């Protein structure tokens, strides 16, 4: 494979807060026949399986069009050493670009540097990480969690005893989401967080954690948890024969079905779209084709506010029992649609029970990210 030339276009030299924006071009102009790898650092739930499936579907489409000559996917379950080995194998195989969803934002430095030294485009996908001369394409974890925390505070009128079930400790998405929770809760001094524990984005783990909480506290007014885990929380309450309080929810078909069956369940569903992986792939392809990102579409990296290299993808929907487009948590969300539970069920009617309510950027929307 011909050696790639990495051209670094310095953006925002007039402001110290701006970082490098990378444009990648071939030594000879090339618009197709690229070889791309996806390194996925977590493989512990159906959401990640759907993310990889979304990537594969788009990659196959590109392959049929000749835009990709081939692609490769590697998965590891939060093993940083294994992920480094997998990324290094991709580099040695001669990929043109690597999309990395890192085990941790700090564990892939050596591999990123090796890839850049060989002229390989590095796109950080889904979970943010801050590395110079890379592009980060990720879901807006902060806004995603803020919506739910704001909704929960409104439901309990800003007072009461709550518990939190977090995601995978050390994961960038979990860190950002919990910062959003902390920022919202800071405005509600009458809300008491009784305890918090990781549920590892697992229904089984969340059920175990919630069971422990229920045995430890007589009164819990609300449950603030992240995605994938809501059905585990519900099972813990059902097994304890206790009424389920207001709780943040999930966005899978199985959860929406259960929600529809439980008339008294007060919850919300905000999809963190697995389809974000396809946006990262589409951005990578356009960069390899020599297109340049419009710097006005870049925001600060969630892991380093001084690095302006991130395309932030908003949640596609906010699902409540009845759609609430004028709610406070919808303010400023131009690309997010408020829909009802019935509308969400309709969107998922032909999907498997484990499927997440997904969302994708159109080709036209991705094109608008570029000059």
Automatic annotation (TrEMBL):
Keyword Signal: yes
One Gene Ontology cellular component: cell envelope
Identification of the protein by name: ABC-type sugar transport system, periplasmic component
Cellular localisation: Cell envelope
GO terms of molecular function: carbohydrate binding
Signal peptide (from-to): 1-25
Main location: other
Family as reported in the entry's similarity comment: Belongs to the bacterial solute-binding protein 2 family.
Domain Periplasmic binding protein residue range list: 36-292
Top-level division of the source organism's lineage: Bacteria
Keywords of this entry: Signal, Sugar transport, Transport
